[in-house]
Amino acid sequence: MIRALFEKELPLKKIYTTSALALAFSFMVVPAALALVAGQASSKPAAKAAVKPPWVSFNPGSWVIIKSSTLAGNKETNVVETKITLLEKTADKVVLETEMTAGGQTTKTKSDLPVKGYTGALPEGVKVLKTGTGTIAIAGKSVDCETMESSMDLGGTKVLSRTWTSAQVPGSLVKSVTTSDGSQSTAQVIDFKVF
After folding, report:
1. Helix (DSSP H) and strand (DSSP E) numbers for the chain
2. How far apart are CA 191 and CA 140, in angstroms?
3. Is 131 exposed, middle or buried (0-12, 13-18, 19+ CB in 10 A)?
4. What H or E segment, with its residue span, contains residue 8?
5. Annotation: CATH topology of 2-193
6. Which ranges of the chain have pLDDT less than 70?
7. Boundaries of every domain in the chain
């Protein structure tokens, strides 16, 4: 499920790394974390969607840069840098450009994300363990965040994730730390601009 989402929304010529999958997992869980904070999250779609999709509150030109990597011992590996820019916003959709660089290779893609019918529901199988708040510094700016710890079983592998989200940041993802099979992957915003 995560791999399919990543292939559809964030392709990089079939380069799949643990950090890239962690980033895809983060994109699945971030809307749910926001919805949970607003008291809207459930495993089934809500009758009325009161929660806005993460990019809707920003104007075209807004962007975010996310660095994702895997920690192997004390060494950072599988480094992927992703810049996501909001190109267009209508009543029905937002159009995002994703520029992803990994292993010296860069790919650009565009994707349309629907606005209507958005519920912020948790992906099936995700269990919320704990919620809270915290603060993270991004490029010298202090950002107040909502946090969510969750778990999910993926084909017999238990995936644990802690996600920080903020309405101040385009796309809402601030940081995600995902652990599975003894490896740890991190996706974190390193810079952003709001228009």
Report:
1. 2, 9
2. 9
3. middle
4. helix 2-9
5. YmcC-like fold (2.40.360)
6. 1-51
7. 2-193
Q: What is the mean pLDDT of the chain?
A: 76
Whether the CB-CB separation of 186 and 19 falls below 8 Å is answered with yes
Predicted local confidence at residue 116, as pLDDT: 82
pLDDT of residue 43: 39
Inter-residue contact 31 to 52 (CB < 8 Å): no
Give me the phi and psi of 175, to 5 degrees please: -160, 145
Residue 51: its pLDDT value, please? Answer: 65
**Partners of 72 in beta bridges:** 75
Q: How far is CA 60 from the centre of its chain?
A: 19
pLDDT of residue 53: 80
Token code pair at residue 50:
């009161």
The percentage of residues in the chain with a pLDDT greater than 90, rounded to a whole number, is: 42
Residue 117 in tokens: 């019918």
The string of DSSP codes covering 13-57 is: TT---HHHHHHHHHHHHHHHHHHHHTT---SS--SS--SPPTTTT
Long-range contacts of 90-97 (CB under 8 A, 24+ apart): 90/115, 91/115, 91/116, 92/116, 94/53, 94/55, 94/56, 96/55
What is the spatial distance between Cα 36 and Cα 14, in angstroms, rounded to a whole number? 33
